[in-house]
Amino acid sequence: MKRILHIIPTLDRAGAEKQMTLLADRLPRDEFDVHVCALTHGGPLAADLEAARIPTTVIGKRWKLDPRSYWRLKRHVAALKPDLIHTWIFAADAYGRAAGLACGVRHFVCGLRCVDPWKSGWQLAVDRYLARRTSRLVANSPGVRAFYVEKGLPADKIEVIHNGIEPLGPSPIGRAELLAELELPADARLVGLVGRLWPQKRVKDAIWAADLLKVIRGDVHLLILGDGPQRDRLRRYRDHVLIGDKVHFLGQRDDAARMIPHFDVLWSTSGYEGQSNAIMEAMSAGVPVVATDIPGTRDLVVPDVTGCLFPIGDRALLAKRTNQILDNPDLARRLGDAAKTRMADEFSVERMVHRYAELYREIVR
Q1: Domains and CATH numbers, the chain
Q2: Which of 88, 150, 178, 194 has the fewest C-beta atoms under 10 angstroms from its C-beta?
């Protein structure tokens, strides 16, 4: 049996963390002994790992450069003696591979989860240096792969394994019950936006587009699920443009799965992504998606087949495409049905886990 150690910064309910948890839970237990290490802190996904009986350790990293955390991680790796380390997101990529190399670990998989324009020269230099010592780099979309090849990472080591999504079943509550819970009128049309409130997500564009929709129709309500460093600034902007009656900040939710099936449209206004779990969850529930035309998202949303794409920052087109879907039930149904089929056929969790299991076997053979 081969021991696999996953190292990731946190166990929050975010994209990479969800994918890691799904993968760790579904890998064949008779073949892989799976362990998880959270570099910075735990989170709600720790309960899922505990339920799956996957040993989990939290290192407690506090600063960007934290020697004590590095030594704690190194001791953990030395004691565990993994056959392969799989790292997720830059901090875990750097600390995890460095600690593994120091302990004599031979095999590494590094996840390239997002187009990362924020990375500075020294961070990309770290990526390039460690890539030489890494068995395989895994991008979750062709767009992410192309970004890192352009930045100098070895193309022959980068494979693409798409994210996997579990189909969302019917919501356990009815639409009328949800609207009453949110204190919204019975005729409200629901537009959802799910994600962390930080600059990458360009949530201000969504508030602006909601304001445009308010001019032409009074039934649209934007539900923003998530939290983050821009929360207070975005709320002030919403109140400044006098649209507090149509834009609702619902905070971090553990029950998004019961709300998403009732969305009439899902918005994604991000400036860059890897492969959005929120878009995949909405598509799996048959919800039409209107999203920015960016790498990663292009692999999910087929224009005018499973949803609509618009240029980054084009709030008017975002509002226009959304209005067209809301005005045309047949169009909404066609887009939603095609999106649901695409997720089931091409982005299943089983397919994702199978690809990773085959990769692990090939590397450690």
Answers
A1: 2-164+348-364 (3.40.50.2000), 175-346 (3.40.50.2000)
A2: 150
The 10s digit of each residue's pLDDT in 298-323 is 889 999 999 999 999 999 999 999 99
- Cβ atoms within 10 A of the Cβ of 180, count? 12
DSSP three-state, residue 80: helix
Strand order in the sheet with 84-88: 56-58, 32-41, 2-10, 84-88, 107-112, 136-139, 158-160
Contacts of 230 (CB under 8 A, 6+ apart): 197, 198, 199, 203
CA 267 vs CA 75, 93, 310, 355: distances in Å: 44, 30, 11, 29
Amino acid occupying residue 72: R
Count the Cβ atoms, other than its own, within 10 Å of residue 132.
9
Distance CA(357)–CA(109), nearest Å, equals: 12
